[in-house]
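If it is no trouble, can you show me the amino acids of a protein and the tokens describing how it folds?
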Amino acid sequence: MASTSTSPPPAETQTFTTMDKDLDAIGSHCQYNYCNQLDFLPFRCESCKGTYCLEHRTESGHKCPRAGEWAAARRKAEALSPTTNINLPGKPTLLTASQCSHPSCKTYINTLSSVGVGCPTCNRQYCLKHRLEEDHSCSTLIPIGVRQSSGPTRADKAKAALGRLRVWGKEKQAAVLPKPKPSTAASRILAVNALKKSAKGDAKVPVEKRTYLYVEAEANTTSSKLPKGECFFNKEWSVGRVLDAAAKTLQVENVNNRGGGEEERLRVFHVEMGRLLEFGEKVGDVCVSGNTVVLLRGVGPAA
């Protein structure tokens, strides 16, 4: 019986006392004035290096004496870091990756998760699903980098212009140079007199130095309609100057002085002589009043 009365205290009491002492070792007390709450998951302020509870974890919550220091230091470090402007890998977008060239596919290619496959026929990039030619209708696509034909080539234009030149020359010669008749000379005199009354030109040119011509011009290389006019020019003028004046009078685009290609330049065709005139020739040496000249585009230099 004596041994029973001196038994040790219950084990539960010892365990409770030990747990009570270890609570402070598990958490931390909030350092905010008048709080001192024990928090098992305390928060650390990177500005003042203090420890606080959930309620006072923010700088404004514990009235941090060094508020903003941590944020300022971080901004400064990011500004000085050479890797600040480097785009970190993330979710691909139109700015960081490209999409599959198939019209109905929105898959981003050339990323960490999806590679791109180039088609050697159409020169486009596709995802794995549309990499085969039959999967993206390759036969109907125009390869990227191949220059498309925008119309007739320069050689075709030159051939067409020379063809028009021959046709117009024959037609004009037939119309302007009829078969000789007894009244041909008189008719021409009357026609020239009528031409002098209706012709337009630089009023400063003396009457005795004027050459009166019928002028036609090709306004568009694809149009068969020709602007017409009756003009007079100084006999001393070069064919090039006559061309400029005639194009201005008939409101025809003249790009001869811009250095463009021959297919866009105007040339003067003398109907009665059946040839192109050189720019340096004097109009008074090759034309007489009553003749007809035609401004043609893209017929090449005079032979």
Notes: The CA atoms of residues 32 and 62 lie 6 Å apart. DSSP finds seven helices and 13 strands in the chain. Residues 98-140 form one domain. Residues 11-18, 177-183, 220-224 have pLDDT under 50 and may be disordered.
